[in-house]
Every structure is written in C-alpha cells, then in structure tokens.
Amino acid sequence: MPREQSVIAVFAYVDDMLTCLRHLRERNCDIRAVFSPMRLREVQEIMTPRPSTVRLFTLLGGILGGLGFVALAVYAHLSFKLITSGKPVLAWIPWVIVCFEGTILLAVSFSVIAWIVNGRLPRVRPAAGYDPRFSDNRFGILVLPSAAQREEIVRLLQSAGAEEIRDVAD
Amino acid sequence: MSQTSAPPASLVPRIPVIWIAIALLLCVAGGVAFVTAILMGESLRAWQAYLVNFVFWTGMAFGAVLFSAVLNVTGALWGRPLKRLAEAFAAYLPVAFILFWLLYFGREDLFPWIREPVPEKGAWLSAGFMFARNGAGLSLLIGLSVALTYFSVKGDRLALQAPADVTCATGDPAVLQATWSMQKILSPPLIIAFAFVLSLLAFDLIMSLDPHWYSTLFGGYYFIGSFYTGLVALYLLALASLKAPVLRDHVHPRQLHDLGKLVMAFCLFTGYLFYTQFLVIWYGNLPEETRFVILRVKSTPWEPLAWAILFMIFLMPFLTLLSRKIKVKRIPMILLSLLILSGMWLERFILIAPSIWKRETIPIGLLEIIMSAGFFGLVAFCLMFFLKKVPLVSVSDPRFRELAEKKEERLEP
Amino acid sequence: MINLRFGDVNREILGALSAPGRLYWTVVGLLTLGVVYGALVWGYQVLTGVGVAGHRPPVMWGSYLVNFVFWVGIAHSGTLVSAILFLFRARWRTGISRAAEAMTVFAVMIATLFVLIHLGRPWVVYWVIPYPNQRYLWPDFQSPLVFDFLAVNTYFVVSLLFWYTGLVPDLASVRDRTSGIRQKIYGLFSLGWSGTHRQWHHYGASYLLLAALATPLVISVHSVVSWDFALSVIPGYHSTIFAPYFVAGAIHSGLAMVLTLLVPLRRIFHFENIITKDTLEMIAKTSIVMALIVGYAYIVEYFIAWYGGNRVERQTFIFRALGYYAPFFWIMCFCNVVAPLFFFWKRVRRSLACLLVIAILINIGMWLERFVIIIGSISQDFLPYQWGYYWPNWVEISIGFGTACLFFLWFLLFAKFVPSVAMAEVKEEVGAPMRAEEAGRAP
Q: What is the pTM of this model?
C-alpha cells in the first residue's frame, strides 16, 4: 500500500492560492498548512473560523496580574505598617495604578506565551514542507491527500496555477 | 445661500410632526417650570438647574460638532456618513448663545463672588468682565461651528444642483473645491477654540462657584467630558435616524462599531482625567484643594450621588463596551447611551450644586426633571428643524464619496 | 502610500543588513568610546559619592532626573506609532513602526539606567523590589517612586515583547537568507517560525491585544512619571494637569526623535519608497497637535497660578519666566510651541532639512522644559533662605553624553543587524500579487 505522502504546492499569486484552497476545502482534503509571508484575512476565514484562545489567556493573565499585584501590596502593607503622610494603611486610591500595571504586565506576558505556544513554537526546524521562499514572496499549501485522492489533488493543484508541486518527506 | 431648493426626498428623513410638537411642548414646559420656580422663591434652585443644563447641553453640542472637525483634520474615512448628524448639533448653538446671556439675570444667585467679592481675584471675577469674555469666547466658537456647518451644507446644495448623480461623482467643480477647502481651513481653529473656550467656560461658570478652589486640569476635564458626551449623543442620534433609508445604505455596523470604540476610548479618557485630578488632590492632601473633593465624595448628602455617577459614566460603559458584539446591537446601546448621558448630566450637577447649595438634601426633583426635559426638547427641536432642511449625509464631501465607492478593506485590526 | 512591489520588499529592506562598511564601524567605535567614557565617570561617581554631581540643597534632583523623564518621554512615541496608530488603522505607520518601537525599547533602557545613576546608593537599588526578605522591609506601595518602578519596568517588558513579537516573522525572513552562524542566531530568535496559517492566526490575535494593552500603558507610564512631581506639594510640581501635559510632551519629544532618527535612516538605507514623505508629513502634523496641547498646558498653568492666589505658587511662575533660568523658559516656549507651528505650511512639512531642524529644536525644547520644571521649581520653593541655583557639572554632562552615545549605538546596531522596517506589515500593505491584476496589466 503506497504511503500517504504530503504534497506541497508553491504559488506565486495569492488569488490562485485562495481559489485552490477553497476547492481543496470543498473536497474535504486534509490541508496541513497554508504558508504565507504575511497574514491573510481570507486564509484565516477559510482555515480558522474560531477565534484564537490567545484572548482567553490574555484575559486570564490580566485578572491574575491585577489581583496579584494588589494582593502583594496588601500583604506588604499589612506586614509592615509604615504610615506615611497620614495615608491609610491600605489605600485603594493609589493602588488603582498598582492594579493597572499588574494587569497589563501579566496580560501581555500571557498573551505572548499563548501565541508562541499555540503556534506550536518554538521549533528547532521549520515546519515540514517549508520553503524559504515562503518568507519572501511565495505562498504554499501543504496537503496530505489520501491515496485515492492523490491523483485528483495533484491535478487540481496544477490546474490552479501552482508554480511547483512536490512531495514532502515527513 | 440664495438657492433654497430643498434636497431630494431620498436624502431627507421623514420626521413626524408629532415629534416636533412634543419637543416644543417639553421646551415650553421647561420654561414654565423655570419661571414658576423663580416666582415661588426658589430662585437658587431654578438657576442652578438652568446652569447645569446649559453647561451640559452646550458642551454636548460643541462636542458633537467637534467630531466633524476632527474627521476633516484627520482625513478619516470611516465616519463620513455620520458627519451631517454631528454638524446638526450646531443648530442648537445660536440658541445656546441666547441662553448664555439669560444667565446674567441669575448671576446674583449663582456666583458667590458677586455678593462676597474676593479681593485678590477681583480683576478676573467681576460680573461684567466675566460675561464679556465668555460671550466673546462663545461667539468665536459658535461662529466657527456654524461656519463649518454652513460650508458643509452649502457644498451639498451645490453638488445636488449638478446634473450628475452625486453619490458617485468624481470630478469636482471649483465651487465644491472651495467649500471643501473652507471646511478644512475652519477645522483646526475650531479644535483649538474648542479647547480654550470650553476651558474658559469651565473655569468661569463652574470652578468659580467655589472661588477659593482651583485645579489646572479642570478645563481639560470639562472639554474632554463634553466631547465624550457629544460622541454618545451622536451615537444615539445615529441609532434614532437609522430609519431613514439613506442612512441605512451608508451607516453599516462597521461605522457603529467604530463609533462605539471611540466612545469607549473617551470613556476611558474621561475616567483617566477624573482619576488624575482626584489622585493629585488626594495625595497632596492640601486643605484648600481637598475641601472641594471631600464635600462631593465623602460628605452627606452628596456621597451616594458621586458613586452613582462613577458607575454610570465609567464602570458601566467600560464593562459593557469591552464586548465587541454589543456595539452594534440597537437596544443595549440605546440604553447605555441614555445611561451615560444621564450620568454626565449628574456629573455636571455634582460639580456645580455642592458649591452653592448649602441645604441638607440633594436638590433633584420635579423641577430639575422638567427643566432638563425642556432643554432636551429645545435641542431636539433644533436638530429636527435642521435635519429637515439639509441632506442627511454629506454628499459633497469628497471623502464621503471615496468611502462610498471604495471596496471593502480586507486588511484591518 | 508605500511605493514598492511585493517581490522587492525583502530585497529592499534586507539590503540594509548587508556587511557594514568602514564608516559604520568608525562611528560605532566612536560611540563605544563615548559610552566607555560615560561609564568610567559613573564609576567615579559611585566610588566617590553622588555629591560629585553637584546636587546640593535645595536642588537635590538634577539633570539625571531631567534625563530620566526625557528618555521615558522619547520612549512613548514608539508605542504611539506602533500600537495606537495600529488601532486607528493609520496606513502611514507601516514604514516607521519597527524603528520607532526599537527606539522605545532603547529609550526605556536608558531611562532605567538613569534611575540607577541618580541614586545615592545604587548598590541597594534592589530594596525596591517587593520580595520577602530578612530585612523585614517592604517597599511602600503608595510611594510614587514605587509606581515608577512598576510602571517603567512594565513598560520595558511590554515594549520589548511587542517589538519582539513583530520581529519574529521578519527574523525568519533573515534566517532564510543567511547561512552559517548567522543563520543559527537568527533561527534561534525567530523560534522556528514558518508562517503557517495557524501561527499567523494566533500571532494576529495576540498582536491586536498587545496593541490594545500597550495603548493605555503609554498613557499610564508617563502619567506615573509625572506623578513623581505632581504628588508632592512643591509649587510648580503640584498641579492636576501634569499627567496629560506630560503625556502630550512625551509624545511630542518622541515624535521629534523619530524624525531625527528616520530622516537620516531613510537616506542612508535608501528607504525613500517605504518611509515616504507622506509619512514624515503625517508625523509633522501630529507634532502640531502635541505642540498645541503643550502650549495650552503652559497657558493654563500660568492662569491658575495667578487665579489661585497662592503667593508661593505665583512666585514660582514669575521666577520661571523672569528669574535665573528665564532664558531656558523662553527658548523652551519657542522650541516646543512656536517652532512646530511652522509645520502648518506644506513646504516646511515636506522639506527634509526643515523637518530635521524643527525636530532637533523640539528635542532641545523638551529637555529644557523638564529642566525648567524639575530644577526651576525646587530651586525657589517655600523658604527664601533656601533658594539656590544649580548647573549640571562635568560629571553629569559626561554621563549624559555617555548615555546618549549608548542610545545611538544601540540604534545603529539595530539598524544593521535587525530589519528596521516591518517587512511582513509592508507586504500586507502593498498587497500580494494577484494573477487577475497581472493579466490586466499584461502588454
């Protein structure tokens, strides 16, 4: 039985790539990855309709940071009650700033960690099928066709205007 | 201005006569309530309510017109369909000018430094000089606002007389260029005058009610708050006018979403300015500064009102507008807008009233409600009167036509 | 706005990363010497004591704090350009965002350095970090200095992460075009980025959130720095308008520094197609707005100083305009408010020489403004017996010079080893080639 091998198609024109992508989606082909040198809204619409979980992590980080910094301030002031210029021991008004900085700091940190981890990074080597031209001016679609569909998919890629089609060693 | 041909029916909303009648009725009711209160001896309360309303509605109107000026200066595309709605508030401004001069009759009740002059500030705090300089400032700002609106409308009138279909005209005759350049020339001075004149109004009409208190940020706090109020009012007006077909064609959820984001931004900005003023006064703990704040935030009867205001103008809008989807939903946004506008009214109230009202209870009752309704009716009447006579979207604005013709942007945050 | 073909973007921008010539290395060498000199003088100061810097009553905060506020201010417009303009969907930011963010990161680092430099005992600076310790001491979370610590550090971390996030796809581009040890280093920093749809999806979501979070941070950081002064009771310091006034001033000086750096950069690297004159013109227009806000603040402060009736406050402001440091005040008014108004004329906005000259004037004016406020206010405060004047001496000037060299050194290294224009964003703006369009254009 022939092994299922991934196929990478390189496109020079973005509309060719998008049309091809839609056709592949219609045929329920297993699209492994779509490479591009910049973010494409159309690709996101086709491939990842659900919003990213980065948002949730950011919110979580924000809440943790805000509460955490204020908790730290409360703990510090209760441990060491240094009364300066008549302010109360636990002064909420200036601690709006402390809470705010904590919120932003941890929200941003969590956000960055989330996008890195969600993107399955860091990696030692770039993803399978990656071509250095993808960071320049070419687009790529990596598909894993089933043995039955292989011929059809390769023909589809050719007719869609792919510049280059080759097999990828997994 | 000699061509008085009415714009085509497609560009003008159908405003039921009953609304105009109700507006006028409210206006009359407000006036009657005001006069009755004065005649019955409650002149301080009446004038206080008058001042709060004047300061609130005038600031709001200036803020809304500022939106049009800012659109012109930044060359932004997204908000063009809303430009005429923003300019509509300029219709109220000449009325506001007259209302300002009426304040002269209440000066003895309102301004403590008339009955008890403050010697070291006598040069600044004298009735004649105060009214003169504020009158001059208002004339300047109202003049600029009305001129901006005039050129905007004139451009539309000229464009509508041209034979081509104006919603996709590309070449501009010289007269259209002239009205557009006048708008671009008038916008920066309007913005500058907005900051200075509204600061002057705030210092003179609100801050001087407690002549020994001062804060450098007070003017800024007032005019940013007025812009916030103006944006919310514009949002409400946009929602109310969506029934008109021409607006439905041009005001997409995207415009409302963007306007909602701007409202959120200025909600945060107003909250930030409040906090920075509060923090500096709280931290420095200087009696001459804290007196003002403690009276409003910690003493009876004003404390609960202060918390309510914080909730209404900051907490509630901030938490609500965090959600993306809510900015385009009609009913929640109408409710939120009404909440913010009421909150800002109360905010102006709490800046003014505690300085001059020395009794134990908060003076908010039927008189204030009817008078505020009266002002609302007046503003609504001016808006409707204006919008019946001009195209609802600024068809001669080249950026508006650019937006109408352009394909949807694919790359955006 | 950007006049470049999609296929040329990499080549044009990465062309700047070619092996540097002798002139570059000479300048880097000279700057390094300047940094070393500054470091040596700082070493002298640490060993001898901060008194060598000429700080004495009543002026206990000298040019170190002026420099601190100055550099934090400069840091702000980087985030303004990258984050705030991103949220406004302003197209003109694309060519300059990367360089502006880099400027932010470096300026924040210099500012933090000045916090260390101005301390009397820099070796105990770690006492401000809130961790359980055997001294049984905690920092006072109500102190504006602790707010500073939290805010400036948060700003540093956030700016660094924001800048780095934007850099990852571009570093991957460089990785793909180099070999050997260089490829390994760029590969390490690009985290193995491949540009798959999944990576772009999460990246894009995060970038938007980072921009949205960095925006209030910009406002808050310089507000916190302004509260170092406003939360005291010194006349001239204690003023409610300080927070928005300082933020506007920060953006003003930051944009001026952006112009100062980018006008030469675009000439040297031939980025005229990317950092177009339209972009520079937009920066100039924004400068006008900031100049007007700063001018408004000057006028209001003077008015309220008179209106408030407080004799000490009135005295401070009269001193500011007519006293010992008066020339600085008037130069400052000219440089900060009057000079940028020349940008109202289109010819001035589009002339590179004028842009550079006015930008430098603004930077001088903003430095003088910090000087006038910080040093002017405390040199004549409550007790006439305590009035005294101060000038930066050779120690302070050397250290200030050394840190300025450090800033420019970092920026030069950045410009040569890291893509100084956001390639992925430029590609997004220029738009990918479409076969349909090419067919239409075929001869």
A: 0.92
